[in-house]
Design goal:
Its main location: cytoplasm. Homodimer. This protein has 14 helices and 16 strands. It is α/β, with parallel strands linked by helices and 425 residues long. A 7-stranded mixed beta sheet has the order 4-12-11-10-9-5-8, sandwiched between helices. It binds pyridoxal-5'-phosphate.
């Protein structure tokens, strides 16, 4: 019996579904999740000691590849000095200064331990600052699992969202409006109707939780203009895109200055660390300065800060993001070529260290379009690639991640494997 299967069976006895986060259970693709024994660079090894070229990278953090020696050393050194203090440290000031330097829109920030915490706190802050209750999100964007953000679209424009999870009272989502990504008209109509009640609009500025979907320039410009006109805050949830799509993040690519930004994944270098920050006058509303409460026993944890700080230094090496972008673009183009040769309808896209592939003729621009892709084909392709030793996200609705350890040669190997896998579909 495979050791992966053995661990999965054992895990299921004591952990719901055998996993600590749902997508890890391979529910959409079927089969046995790979239990990771260790990882290094672009690879991980599973419980059966099989090697995989990893395009998940912990869902984003592993931008330098796994277990980068300098990051590991920084964490080891920090650990020797104590694991957690519940009192401020120099490292926290240093990483805050570093992030503020890289992101001009962020004048002040708070460190937290997960992206969920970052977005939840940013929303509370936006409501506290504006004195308004309504929030706007977009269908298909994921912002963690706090109650007010676990919402699916209602039946029409200006109907409030319904909870998308059990255990979330409708009362918790009755202030959340769910709109369509890239729909400028709907956004404008909404602001016309209830703009003076909207505390904030939160979005994935490049969506990576409904596969990879880019916003139009018109859409992000409308977001900035409408929020500004109506006194609502614009929150760029860059938990996934932050430091991955570019050194100055999606907001840098868009030329947009959001009021608040959330960061996670890359910023923690693989450790539990996330950030919310933005305009100093807004951040001044946070306790102890203001009346918006937010706290955390492990916030600014010294090991997480050491990993994050070292990662931020390493990604500032000249040409880092250019190289990363070129590798992702090469992969996206290679996959599209391979599909064309195999006569399979597939489109692809990439930005920075993120890529998407869609079993449909066109690149989707909304959740509705993303969910129109051929899931049966995705499943077959996923397993064919897994057999080839290539580990893709076990879901058709997640972006893929390339690290700097994914060399040109490894990208070539991946494209060759995809050609064989597609031929077998
Ligand atoms: C991953 C993610 C989150 C949630 O972060 P966690 O650390 O998993 O809580 C929030 N927003 C976006 C855009 C994400 O990709």
């Amino acid at each position: 019996m495979s050791r992966n299967l053995e661990l999965f069976e054992r895990g299921k006895q004591v952990i719901p579904g055998g996993v600590n986060s749902p997508v890890r259970a391979f529910g959409q693709v079927g089969g046995t999740p790979r239990f990771v024994k260790r990882a290094e660079g672009a690879y991980f090894w599973d419980a059966d000691d099989k090697q995989y070229l990893d395009y998940v990278g912990s869902w984003g953090p592993a931008i330098l590849g796994h277990a980068h020696p300098e990051v590991v050393k920084a964490v080891q050194d920090a650990a020797v000095g104590g694991l957690s203090f519940g009192a401020p440290t120099e490292g926290e000031v240093e990483i805050a200064e570093e992030i503020c330097k890289l992101l001009p829109s962020v004048e002040q920030l708070r460190l937290v331990s997960s992206g969920t915490e970052a977005t939840m706190s940013a929303i509370r802050l936006a409501r506290g600052f504006t004195g308004r209750d309504l929030i706007v999100k977009f269908e298909g964007c994921y912002h963690g699992h706090s109650d007010s953000l676990l919402v699916k679209a209602g039946s029409g424009l200006l109907t409030f969202g319904n909870p998308s999870s059990g255990g979330v009272p409708a009362d918790c989502t009755k202030h959340t409006l769910v709109l369509q990504y890239n729909d400028v008209q709907q956004l404008a109509d909404t602001f016309k109707e209830v703009g003076d009640q909207i505390a904030c609009v939160i979005l994935e500025p490049i969506a990576g939780n409904m596969n990879l979907i880019k916003p139009s320039a018109e859409f992000v410009q409308a977001l900035r203009a409408l929020t500004e006109q109506h006194g609502a805050l614009l929150i760029y949830d860059e938990v996934m895109t932050g430091f991955r799509v570019a050194l100055n993040c999606a907001q840098g690519l868009h030329g947009i200055t959001p009021d608040l930004t959330t960061l996670g994944k890359v910023v923690g270098g693989g450790m539990p660390l996330a950030v919310f920050g933005g305009r100093a006058d807004i951040m001044a509303k946070i306790a102890p300065l203001g009346n918006v409460y937010q706290a955390g026993t492990l916030s600014g944890n010294p090991l997480a800060v050491a990993a994050g700080l070292t990662t931020l230094k390493l990604i500032q090496q000249p040409g880092f993001h250019d190289t990363l972008s070129a590798r992702s673009a090469k992969l996206a183009a290679g996959l599209a070529d391979a599909a064309r040769e195999a006569g399979v309808a597939m489109s692809t896209d990439s930005v920075g260290g993120m890529f998407g592939f869609y079993f449909s003729d066109t690149v989707p621009t909304s959740y509705a379009e993303a969910t129109r892709c051929d899931i049966a084909r995705f499943k077959a392709f996923f397993h064919a690639m897994l057999d080839e030793g290539i580990y893709l996200a076990p879901s058709a609705y997640e972006a893929g991640f390339v690290s700097i350890a994914h060399s040109d040669a490894l990208i070539d190997d991946t494209i060759a494997a995809a050609r064989r896998a597609l031929a077998r579909l």
